[in-house]
Design brief:
21% strand; 48% helix
Length: 126
């Protein structure tokens, strides 16, 4: 895939039904993390809030969701039904997207990033 400059351009590179699924994931993340920034990082849509929050991407047969290894570990029991990598999970196109689970993972990652930022800030003061 050719590098893209925006999330809109990324989404536009896929068939309409995949674009709709990508948009659902994007809207879910935005709703849970309204203060986060959006960009393309590693060639895929990325949300940032005091560091990388989550990434997502589309493939032929699934959507990839990347909450990092800590996000995966915290929700391992609920993600067990899906194919996984170290910091990623695959949601097949022939199944509904678990949007509430994605929302919970985003909330978890926001808390995690906020805590890391507090620790960094306190170390700078001390």
């Amino acid at each position: 895939m050719t590098p893209v400059a925006s999330i809109e351009a990324y989404h536009a590179g896929f068939p309409a039904e995949v674009q709709a699924r990508l948009q659902l994931v994007r809207e879910t993340i935005r709703r849970e993390a309204p203060l986060s920034g959006e960009c393309i990082s590693y060639g895929i849509p990325t949300f940032q809030l005091q560091g990388n929050l989550v990434h997502y991407a589309a493939y032929d047969k699934h959507l990839g969701f990347y909450p990092g290894s800590s996000g995966m570990a915290a929700f391992s029991d609920r993600l067990a039904q899906f194919k996984q990598g170290k910091g990623s999970v695959q949601f097949p196109h022939d199944q509904p997207i678990p949007l509430e689970l994605i929302a919970e993972i985003v909330r978890y990652r926001m808390q995690e990033n906020e805590e890391k930022a507090r620790v960094r800030k306190s170390k700078k003061k001390g």
